[in-house]
Amino acid sequence: MPAFSPRTTTFDAAHRRDALRRLSSEPYDVIVIGGGVTGAGVALDAASRGLKTALVERVDIAAGTSRWSSKLVHGGLRYLAKGDIGVAWESASERGALMTTIAPHLCRPAAFVVPLDAVTSDVMGGLTGAGTVVGNALRLASRTPGRLLPPPTFLSANDALLHVPCLDPEHLRGAVLYWDGQIEDDARLVLNIVAMARSFGADIVTRCAASEVSADSLTLTDTLSGHSFRAHGHVINAAGVWATEHESRLTITPSRGSHLVVRSETLGMPRAVFTAPVPGHFGRYVFGMPQPDGLTYIGLTDEAAPGADGIAPPVPPEDEAFLLETVNRVLRVPLTPADIVGRFAGLRPLATLASGEGKTADISRKHLLLADAGQPITIAGGKLTTYRRMAQDAVDAACARLGREEKSRTRRIPLVGAASADVLRDVPAPARLVRRYGTLAPQVWGLTTEWPWLSEPVAPGCPTIGAEFAYGVLAEGALTPEDLVERRTRVSMVEADMEAARATAERVLATVGDHGAADGARPMTTLAAALCAHRAALGLTQAGLARQAGCTRQYVAQLERGERTQPSAAISLGLCRALGLHGAERQAFLLLCGHPESEPSPRDVGPVDAVAAKLLHLIPAPTLLHDGTWHIRMLNAPAQALLGELGFTVRPGVSLLSLVFAEQHRDHFPAWEPWARYVLAQFKRDSLSLSHTPAHAELLRELRALPDFSRLWRHVTPAQDGAPLMPIRYAPPQAAHLTFLLARVQFVGTPELWGIVFLPEEGMKSPQFRVAGVEQR
């Protein structure tokens, strides 16, 4: 089965056991309560700042409100109608980040059609149009590209029917067309956020209930075993509608948002979201939201629901009647209860202070942060689109308590699977899997090579396949059939499919549930699966891989289809080089090729190895910076040797883009291709700045203690762009001089990147090459 990256994003049953052990015996910087989108965002923000982080969830990831949204990443148009420009701006800004950087594989543009008919006044049409124009201005201000979200326009009646054939043509006069964001799957977004937090070292524990919560400790109970223990760390309460269980100063008023599910073919296969105005409520609509899998959601209501079940609140008959009555006002053929194939509702946590401070109508559109001294930090309210900003505020409060100064970087961190549309088009996996898993799709599809029956639908007529269930168990912490049908996939949206798929879910759990490894990594058992997974992780096409490996595209295609199973030794080694495989990964791949590599002979561990170990401790993911030509041109022997110790495979003609993918893309951030292109376009020679930090000082102290090093080093001093810098100069006795710099690289509009710059001669003038290991910190 496909291997998962050494810097793992998986959180399977084995990880859960290990995390529980650590929580019971080790202190943490931050412990997050709640596995919804807000808690997941908090865990990612904290872990990406370098905080030791754990997330605990009583049931499962995205078990509550976060999976019951309307699947929209909206820019706040509804808030413009209420005059709340601030909330609208925040929504537009966060929408832009999600669609362009954080989760472009899950978020897509969606056309919205607002019908104008005989009962829609000219004033209403004008106000709607004006609102979309203001919304477009927010889109421009938030720098969301027009190619993603085009400006609004008016449609003729005929054009409106082309987008939404089910509209009633008799009264249709035209429509307003505007664009907003739609998400493939809200639960999958949460899973991707959690996986990214995992990649930064966060521990993820489901079926773990929190109680007796204080500011810096809490009691945790493993609900599977019943074992309880006290865990220590600054607590952030992100429990959504359950937040009041741990914060008495807070009042949560649950608001139920009900939806109906119908087959899109019943509505003539609409190509756009369409709206039906709620009579007597300006700015409030019921939406018809077509989904890629052939379903359309009709929603939503906004009704107080005190005491409702937060996990799976039922849709009451009055909500169903209201939704049908409202949407039928604009339809040519009315929907009936017989057309409904599923129903779902979520409880939005409207947060106010128990003291009565603030107005519900105001706070319900914003999030509420409580961070009084001696109390746990609580973050509540808000909405799916702005989860990242909520998390940032909560972790800022935690950092203040910890005395840490790290700033949030999550606006610029792509989630697992994220990549540009150009890269996703070439991912070697079925299009539906690419839409849901991005660059991870080959890992999912590769499971069908190990177990061919996983390529079959989990229920008759259902688009979900068994491999998605298996991946949910192996990589995403699914423990029960409900986890698989309700959250790792959305089979449960169609009630008949949910029942039919349960048997497949149980079979998958029985088959792959015991395959977890303690470290979260699993070997690949077929060459085809390995090649597909590695190539997709690098963003390489079959032709691109073939060129670098010294074979033909057809040969690579045959290998990936399993038509060839034992390439020659030369091609096997070429594939290893092209894929950037090292160490255990290289040995495993060559074994699959039929050419096992003998163990390297023992060698003396000298000062170079010690230096390399120290550098790798600070910088675990090497990457290349350019030398002015985007290629490494000249390497002297000692530099080549040390680069080999650091895990580089350096050969003539390796460009920035390919080495970013080969050394870092798979292990650290799964989708750096858009970032790398941005750097290629924006890099300026004077943008290299260098600074001395406590982290560097600690590293230098360790380096200075190494044999033969103390007499050969010079201290790195703070420097502005263009100012002189005293480099570290290391000359091990058995090699010529090698100079390197510890550097902070800052490109305009990008995160800070810590790294090492190697120079073949002392000083900054005319370096022959620069190599850096970089990591966001």
UniProtKB/TrEMBL annotation:
InterPro entries: Cro/C1-type_HTH (IPR001387), DAO_C (IPR031656), DAO_C_sf (IPR038299), FAD-dep_OxRdtase (IPR006076), FAD/NAD-bd_sf (IPR036188), G3P_DH_FAD-dep (IPR000447), Lambda_DNA-bd_dom_sf (IPR010982), MLTR_LBD (IPR041413). SUPFAM superfamilies: FAD/NAD(P)-binding domain, lambda repressor-like DNA-binding domains. Its cofactor is FAD. Keywords: FAD, Flavoprotein, Glycerol metabolism, Oxidoreductase. It holds the Pfam family HTH_31. It comes from the Bacteria. The keyword Disulfide bond does not apply. Belongs to the FAD-dependent glycerol-3-phosphate dehydrogenase family. This is Glycerol-3-phosphate dehydrogenase. It comes from Deinococcus sp. VB142.
